[in-house]
Amino acid sequence: MPVLNNISVATLKLMDVAELMILFGELEAPTIQEMNGEYAAVLLKQPTFAATIMGYSAIYNPVMPGFWLCKAFRPVSETQGRGYNTFQHLGRVVQRYPMLTLIAASRYDGKPAYQLVYRAYQSLCGTIHMVDEIRKVSDGVYLGIGTYGFTDAQRRIPLPFLLTGSVGAYRGDMGQLRKRFNLNKELPAHSM
């Protein structure tokens, strides 16, 4: 990854989705142990105007859920972790949308990616089968590809975001486990 270490955050913010996906394919997954703490989060360019409007209205909404600040993670074992998203909502900082984390094969290229599986917990993100994939650009800089949907085709539309940090400590586990959660149904067939 030595050549990739020269890509700046400013450059990532200028890249279109096709460029970000090419870069994503060249990156490696961070380890479960590496992803520990809160990471500042921002959306990158989205694939369509409609996706941009939906993305921004979903995570930068003063009514609900608030303004997206970060994603946070902690290792639970050698193979899995936990996490949540943090928002600024009506003058307070709140955690929402818990997730299970693990290393699994990417739905885009079959190579390992740090995966955030929201379906493991009760939340709107779990209901819409959201799964994010993360790979490391350089120390403290991570490219994420969000997905959601009820079909394989819907879940292949890449929704890029950027994480930087860590910028703070993990605040604590949250969320209620979903009954009858099946990890095999959330990841591509070649993941398991």
Write up this protein.
The protein is an alpha+beta fold and 192 residues long. It has one domain (27-167): Lipocalin (Beta Barrel), CATH 2.40.128.20. It is 18% helix and 39% strand.
pLDDT averaged over residues? 92
CATH class annotation = Mainly Beta
* Morphology call: globular
Helical residues, percent: 10-25%
Strand order of the largest sheet: 1-3-4-5-6-7-8-9
Low-confidence stretches: none
The CATH homologous superfamily is termed Calycin beta-barrel core domain
- What oligomeric state do the depicted chains represent? single chain
Order of helices and strands: HHEHEEEEEHEEEH
Q: What profile does the largest beta sheet have?
A: 8 strands, antiparallel, barrel
Under CATH, the topology can be stated as Lipocalin
How many helical stretches? Answer: 5
- Total discrete domains: 1
Kindly, what is the distance between the CA atoms of the first and last residues, rounded to a whole number of angstroms? 26 Å
**What is the SS-derived class?**
alpha+beta
**What's the gyration radius in Å?**
15 Å
What is the CATH architecture assignment?
Beta Barrel
Number of strands: 9
Question: What amount of the residues lies in strands?
Answer: 35-45%
